[in-house]
Write a structure and sequence with these properties.
CATH architecture of the largest domain: 3-Layer(aba) Sandwich
Strand order of the largest sheet: 2-1-3-4-5
Order of helices and strands: EHEHEHEHEHEEEEHEHHEE
Oligomer: single chain
Structural class: alpha/beta
Largest sheet: 5 strands, parallel
CATH superfamily of the largest domain: Response regulator
Distance between the termini: 40 Å
Number of domains: 2
CATH class of the largest domain: Alpha Beta
Shape: globular
Helix content: 40-55%
CATH topology of the largest domain: Rossmann fold
Length: 230
């Protein structure tokens, strides 16, 4: 089940129809109250959440989801009509796994939903394997536990931030282009908005503090994780 919280009935109905036509089950909600009233009757696999909503806005709803242990790991894609860097960073920093700026193409939305669900289910399927950590300096990442430690202290990352950090640490020492990162982490060819990578790198650096300095900018290429894996 995928939930779409969007006050514009045309956009909401379009998203629900597109998801249903692509083999998903989808429900639409016009605002946060009706969404939360239905949420615990059937826990969704993913939430598509508009930022500009009447009453409680999308960022407030997102923060509420992330505070609740039952919905903390629930993947969230934000829909926003805003295009400023501040609004995108605010959404990602509040726990969103991805964002789409309106207007958007239906095929793009479906591709992002499929990619995020695929990576979420892949992580769960691998949970039975040995959780061997990736360690670089004071940074430790446990793939199966979905846990990151900096100097022994736990750091809360979104699903996409975690996947990005894991990819960077796995390829430590290599200069990775934004296009490479998008394909590996987002799971599809994302044309145009390579700024998506920049937004996630920025929030990842902020959340990991001093350890975030190991994520180096490679001018004209992209990014590189410095240090050596232990």
């Amino acid at each position: 089940m995928i939930c779409c919280v969007e006050d514009d009935s045309y956009i909401r109905d379009l998203i629900v129809y597109a998801l249903d036509s692509s083999g998903f089950q989808a429900k639409g909600f016009a605002e946060g109250d009706s969404f939360f009233s239905d949420l615990y009757n059937e826990m969704p696999e993913l939430v598509i959440l508009d930022v500009m909503l009447p009453g409680e806005d999308g960022i407030q709803i997102l923060k509420q989801l992330k505070r609740d242990q039952r919905t903390k790991a629930l993947p969230v894609i934000l829909l926003t009509a805003k295009s400023t860097e501040f609004d995108k960073v605010l959404g990602l920093d509040s726990g969103a796994d991805d964002y789409i700026t309106k207007p958007f193409g239906v095929m793009e939305l479906i591709a992002r939903v499929k990619a995020l669900l695929r990576r979420t289910s892949d992580g769960k399927a691998a949970g039975e394997e040995e959780d061997k950590p990736l360690i670089i300096g004071d940074l430790e990442l446990f793939p199966q536990r979905h846990q990151v430690l900096v100097e022994g202290e736990a750091v809360q990352l979104t699903f996409k931030e975690f996947a990005l950090l894991q990819y960077m640490m796995t390829n430590a020492g290599l200069a990775l282009s934004r296009e490479q990162i998008l394909t590996a982490v987002w799971g599809y060819d994302f044309e145009g908005e390579t700024r998506t990578v920049d937004m996630h790198i920025k929030t990842l650096r902020q959340k990991t503090g001093a350890a975030g300095k190991m994520i180096e900018t490679v001018r004209g290429i992209g990014y590189k994780m410095g240090g050596r894996k232990q």
